[in-house]
Amino acid sequence: MPVSSLPNVREFSTDGVVLVGDLSQADVQEALSDGKFASWIYMNPESDANFPLAAKSALGEAFKQVTVEGSTLTRGLANALTEAMETLPRPTMVQCSTATRASIAYILYKAREKKWPQAGALQRAREMGLKFFSKPPLAAFVRDSLRSDGLIFRQLFDTSGSSTYTYLLGCPITKEAVLIDPVKEMVERDIAVVDGLGLKLKYAINTHCHADHITGTGDLKKKIPGLKSVISKASLARADMFVEHGDVISFGADSSSINLEVRATPGHTDGCVSYVCDNMVFTGDALLIRGCGRTDFQGGSSEKLFESVRNQLFVLPDETLVYPAHDYQGRTMSTIAEEKALNPRLGVAKTKEEFVEIMNNLKLDYPKQIDKALPANLKCGIDD
Ligand SMILES: N[C@@H](CCC(=O)N[C@@H](CSS)C(=O)NCC(=O)O)C(=O)O
Q1: Is any atom of ligand 1 closer than 6 Å to the C-beta of 367?
Q2: What are the DSSP calls for 243-283, one per residue?
Q3: Of which family is this protein a member (predicted)?
């Protein structure tokens, strides 16, 4: 009998992982035949009537029983499941009553392997149709397990005039930290916040080559030896490290590293990227609160921006927190659900044609600092 005919079966052949529900003893024997499975994880207690005794006897150390039920849903359990998935030989069978809890083991393992932040992992789990979403306590367990425990986070505002938000993210264990979109005029403030929290800056990251202010990256690099600047390759700006869609910037402790997933979100400029971290997305000027970045200079394209927001940002879980690079009305954050419903330019009710029409008629003044900001930012914020 092929594995595909087992009850509630879900095969991830490239990972050598099969998720399955309760099996008859005959199915267990069949699954073990010809060495089809080199390891097995069973998620019900040993007392369960369907306990696959034959698998335990045949596989010895490669058989792991890990009870996944209400009272055991802790970070310790998530770590044990992930470790079992990482270390057991392939192919491995992951079994529970209906393959619902088994899907938890799979997403925890894939998120660690691919360094997906929580929001990115949950998006992919949804796209894969993993069954744990059908049980709210299990979905909550997965969400909590994928959070970056104790992540340090500060939102800092440019009071010198550009209304830019700079974001500080830090690891509570190693104290490594990154700044997203620092502003030249606010560098002393940023350093004071970093020092005050006992953090060590590793990366100064830009979402794009800004036109309205000079990045603080160059000055930060002068003051903090070893600090690396980061920007997208497509921005054509100077930096120590270039990122592209799909890259992950990691910092913090190995065991619980903090991951920033890079998503290309061109349209405001061709080199715009957004960074997904934990349950947040830092959207730069691609998606603003109830708005979006203008598309009338720096290679801007309304069509591209529409695709970027719809295909890279609105696919994130609804509860993902949106942190933009600017707000001109004192708003600090939004969510993907809010922007999908309420963004007057590109909420889901708007077509691409309507969006392009809106963008063609914004009639915004050019940013006051554009003539000095653009050349400086192409050189990592060095103003000469
Ligand atoms: N008045 C400001 C510039 C305001 C502006 O154009 N903001 C940009 C982002 S910075 S290039 C934008 O895309 N705005 C979209 C919008 O709808 O406001 C200045 O002079 O700096």
Answers
A1: yes
A2: E-TT-EEEES-GGG-EEEEEEE-TTSSTT-EEEEETTEEEE
A3: Belongs to the metallo-beta-lactamase superfamily. Glyoxalase II family.
